[in-house]
Amino acid sequence: MNKIELNHNSLKKSYDKKIIRKFKDMKEKFKESNNIKNNPLLYQVYIKDFGCFETGLTVIEPGTINKEFYMTKGHKHQKPTKEIYILLKGKGKLIIQDKKTKILNLKKDKTYIIPKKSGHRLINTGDKKLEVLTIYSKNAGHSYNFKFKKRVFK
């Protein structure tokens, strides 16, 4: 059996799918998106398929759009399933929203379990790249139309 390492270096080199999100892909997710020049890279996700589950490495660039920190689109699962987040590098926050909204300061190597029916979003509040390992059921599905009530500004 081959050894599998789930770290930022191995996932960046050996992935099955890569998602790239730039500003124009997420313009409507920011409170104010006027006067933004070019199309800056916000984040990338390197996904490895393990059959019944997938793991992803989300890498969010440092920066802001009109003082609102770079963030992921955020989503809720179409099938109620938990998801695991682990901060590997950087400084950031995790928004978890169900009936109430929680904004958590991420701590390195701590495991965060996203509840089954909650929307969730990562935010890079640091000046370096934020790297978070995620583990989730392959058939969970992602709904990106989820509306988040809270925002994080510089």
Topology:
Blueprint: H1 8-13, E1 17-22, H2 23-26, E2 41-49, E3 53-60, E4 64-65, E5 68-69, E6 76-77, E7 83-89, E8 92-97, E9 101-105, E10 111-114, E11 119-124, E12 130-137, E13 142-143
Antiparallel strand pairs: 1-2, 2-3, 3-12, 4-5, 6-13, 7-10, 7-12, 8-9, 8-11
Task: Sketch the major β-sheet.
Answer: 6 strands, antiparallel
> So how many helices?
2
Order of helices and strands: HEHEEEEEEEEEEEE
Question: What is the CA–CA distance across the termini?
Answer: 47 Å
Radius of gyration: 15 Å
- CATH topology grouping: Jelly Rolls
Number of strands: 13
- Shape descriptor reads globular
The portion of residues forming beta strands comes to 35-45%
CATH architecture: Sandwich
The figure for the number of domains is: 1
Helix-strand category: mainly beta
The CATH class label is Mainly Beta
* Low-pLDDT ranges: none
CATH superfamily: Jelly Rolls
Mean pLDDT: 92
Strand order of the largest sheet: 1-2-3-12-7-10
Query: Percent of residues in helical segments?
Result: under 10%
Question: What would the keywords be for this entry?
Answer:
single chain; 154 residues; mainly beta; Jelly Rolls; 6-stranded antiparallel β-sheet; 3-stranded antiparallel β-sheet; 13 strands; 6% helix
Short description:
By secondary structure, this protein is mostly beta strands.
Protein architecture, described:
The protein is mostly beta strands. It has one domain: Jelly Rolls. It contains 2 helices and 13 strands; from the N terminus they run αβαββββββββββββ. The strands form 4 sheets. Strands 1-2-3-12-7-10 form a 6-stranded antiparallel sheet. A hairpin with a 3-residue loop joins β8 (92-97) and β9. The radius of gyration is 15 Å and the shape is globular. The N and C termini lie far apart (47 Å).
